[in-house]
Structure formats: C-alpha cells, structure tokens
Amino acid sequence: MKAQSAFSRRNWIKKISAGMAGLLIAEQAVAKGKPEAFNYDKALMAPGDPIKITKLEIIPVHSLRTIFIKMFTDVGIIGIGEGTVEGRISTTMAAIKELEPYLIGKDPRLVAHHWQAMYRHAFYRGGIILTSAQSAVDMAMWDIKGKALGVPVYELLGGLTRNSIRIYGQAGTPEGAKAVLAEGYQSMKISVTSSRGRNSRYVENPDFIGGVVENIRAIRQTIGPKVDMGIELHGDHSPQTSMLLIKSLEEFQPWFFEEPIQHQNLPLMAEMAKKTHIPFATGERMVTKWQFRELLSLNAASLLQPDVTHCGGISELKAISILAEAFYAGMLPHAKEGIVGAVASMHVMATIPNFVAHELPNLQAVPKENKVERSSLGKSYITKPLVMINGNVVIKDNFSGPGLGIALDENLVDNERGIPEWEFPEMWDEDGAVHDH
User: Fold this and answer.
1) Contact 424/87 with Cβ under 8 angstroms?
2) Distance (Å, rounded) from C-alpha 346 to C-alpha 388?
3) For 307, which DSSP code?
4) What is the chain's mean pLDDT, rounded?
5) Class of domain 53-151
6) Which residues on neighbouring strands pair with residue 190, listed in sequence order?
7) pTM of the predicted model, to two decimals?
8) Are 109 and 90 a contacting pair, CB within 8 Å?
9) How much is the average pLDDT of 286-306?
10) Which residue in 167, 268, 313, 332 has the fewest CB atoms around it within 10 Å?
C-alpha cells in the first residue's frame, strides 16, 4: 500500500504545477525523516524524478534586437533563454525552431550532452547563427535545472567567487559622460567611430586624429582620473588609422581599446597589441572556445568579450572563461542585447576569478515614440528589474533565486507588439564605397 501511495503521488506531482511539486517533495522527505541532497524549500522536484522538454515558445524582442525563448517541460517547470544575431532575427528564430525536434522528449538537465549533440551533429562548425540558437536553448536548460534543484545557476557552475557584478555605462561626449556618472556608474566606455563629422579613411591626417583627441580629452577632464574609461574602436578603422588613434590616445590611459580592428586578422591584432601598453579587448563577434583559443594563443587581446547570446550560451561562456584564466586574460563580457542574456552572463561571471566588468543592454533599438517605460536593468522585460548600487549589481538582491533568478514580464509580448525588426545602419565612405562596421 505504501509503494502504491508513493507511486500515485509521483504521478500526481508530474501533472500539477512545479511549485506545488516542490512543497509535496518537501513534505514527503519530512515524513520519511531522511535528508536529501537538494533544497526542500525551493526544489521543484527530486533529482532522480523524470522530466522531459515538451515545446519551445520563441518570442522576438525587437526593442532589444534579440529573441527570448520559453522552454516547457512535462512537470510544469519553464526555462527562459536568449539568443540573437542582431539584424538577423528571423533567421535566428528559424535556427532555434530547427533545434526543437531534437530537444522534444529530452531531459533538459543533461545540458552538456545536448550542447555537444546539437553542435557536433550539425556538421558545419562555429557559425554564429547556430551558436546563437544554441545559446538560447542552453540558457533555458540551465534555468530549468536550477529551478528543479532549487538553486541558482551560479551554484551549479561552482559557486560564488564574488558578491557583486561591476557594470559600466556608455557615452560618446562629455555631456553623455556626465549623465552616465549621474546614473550611478563608476566606469564607462566611450565610442570612437567618426571625427569632424566623417568616418575614418585608410590612413588619416592630423585633423581627424585631433578631433578624436579633443573629444577624449574633454571627457577625461569631465570624469576625472579615478573613473575607468574604455575606448570602443568597434572595428570601424583600418589598422593604420587605428594605430594612429591608439598612440594618440595613450596619454589618457584608457581602461582598454575595444575591437581595434576586425577579428578576422588576429595575427595583425597581436602585432598591434605589442606596440601599446593599453590592453586590447575583443570577442563580441567570436563564438565557441575554439575561436577564443586562437585569439589567446596569439596574444591578440588580454580582455575577452564573448556574448552569451552568441557564443554558445552559459556552457560555452564558462569554458571560454576557464580558458582565459590559463592565459591570465580577463573577462569583459559583451551584453548589448537583452536582459535575460545579461543576467545569464552574470551568473557565469559570478563564479570565475578573472572577471573585470560587465556591459548592459543599451536600448538603441527602442522606438523614439516609446509609450512603454524601459530600462537597461530590465524594466518592462523582467518582473523584477536589476538594481545598481555604486556601479555594481549585488548578486544576492538581484538574481539569487533558483535557476536564472528572473522571470519575464507578463506584458512582454504586448509591449513588443508592432515594433519592427532593427537593422544595422549602413555606413559609407565619402566616395560612396562601403565602410566597415
């Protein structure tokens, strides 16, 4: 009779909400008087209980140039994730949908196994569309696993190495830098794309370089010497012009130079890195540990910027971080898209020793006539937006709940209705030739 009762209860648990399942499991454990290896107060199911993925819901979030997903299971636990290729949302959505047949019926807790199967069985390796699609489902599986066990994802990744995540703002002018400081940031990144009203040429003259120097000098004077100030070159400049800018801006002791050139020529980037004492940062357009292995082996950059929504998800971001530690490289994650990915990335950064600082979504795709109040910290995207204190996000108060520790705003789909897909702006030289972006 006892065995039959237990069997009935297990089957009932699978059919009710996962929240009630957690309470029943706790009750059962107390009745038996036997402690188990999971958190009775928060776990939604016992580690040995079966669970299967039943479907995916794919949600385009055009105001963030990204895609959120919900991964449903047969026990009621829902995981959320994010994966994107900005300007290629419909293509990435199709790629996520193509992963669904493999995932249906699988146990989402076997995250590493599923990552290998989806990546290696695709035959073609390392494409950003595939890895961005994998990022979304990988993230959702980690979220489910954490919720099932009643622990934050960072506990599953080895536990905390710090109590807060340092974040930085972004500006382009002295006025913008003042506004960043007024918001509470204590560090920032300055974008250098053009000067004197035009884009850079293959080799530049003193007037162009002088315009950039004047702007950076004014910003440094505005923020003072104690504020870290990275300089974003965005791969917009030829190697020659980029090197001119780097040498001219060294006097302001930037925090780093980001994307001094496009990442396709890592040997050249490595040669450039030897010619300055300021660290190079790059990696937002790179994916998987294999691409980052080449970057590190060449010493092309000492600060790595993988994006968890592109590089292959939480699993791969953790692997890249470990690889970087072996090369004494710091982690400076890219996170300009959605808050789900930003929080997932923070879970990884909370567990590593070589974390430097974190980016937040910049909302550049939010419509100008915006009736919904949004924020880089997640307002109108998640139910409980992050809170920044003195330029930091305290882990305990922001994402310390089970799984990712966040939930999607119930009005998200309505808030996004009618917003068109964002497109990268076209950039042209003065003579009409295509300019790098």
Assistant:
1) yes
2) 13
3) B
4) 91
5) alpha beta
6) 171, 231
7) 0.91
8) no
9) 97
10) 268
Q: What are the distances in angstroms from CA 385 to CA 64, 128, 247, 400, 410?
A: 15, 29, 40, 13, 13
Alpha carbon dihedral 14, 9, 402, 133, in 10-degree steps, equals -20
- Which helix (H) or strand (E) segment holds residue 296: the answer is helix 288-297
Give the number of C-alpha atoms closer than 13 A to the C-alpha of residue 279, restricted to the C-beta side: 18
Rounded to whole angstroms, the maximal C-alpha distance in the chain is: 89
Give the DSSP letter string of 264-318.
Answer: T-HHHHHHHHTT-SSPEEE-TT--HHHHHHHHHHTT--SEE--BTTTTTSHHHHH
Rounded to an integer, what distance in angstroms lies between the CA atom of residue 300 and that of residue 363? 30
Confidence of residue 4 (pLDDT cuts 50, 70, 90): very low
- 3 state DSSP class of 49: coil
Beta strand 66-73 pairing with 53-61: antiparallel
User: What distance in Å separates the CA atoms of residue 163 and residue 349, rounded to the nearest whole number?
Assistant: 11
Quick one: tokens of 76? 């009621």
Q: Note the Cα 373 to chain centre separation in Å.
A: 22
The number of beta carbons lying within 10 Å of the beta carbon of residue 166 is 18
Asked whether 165 and 346 are in contact (CB, 8 A), the reply is yes
d(CA 199, CA 222): 25
164-405 CATH, one of 3.20.20.120, 3.40.350.10, 3.30.300.30, 3.40.50.300: 3.20.20.120
β-bridge mates for residue 169, sequence order: 188
Q: What span, in angstroms and rounded, lies between the C-alpha atoms of 316 and 132?
A: 11
The pLDDT score that the predictor gives to residue 39 is 58
In the chain, where the domains are located = 11-49, 53-151, 164-405
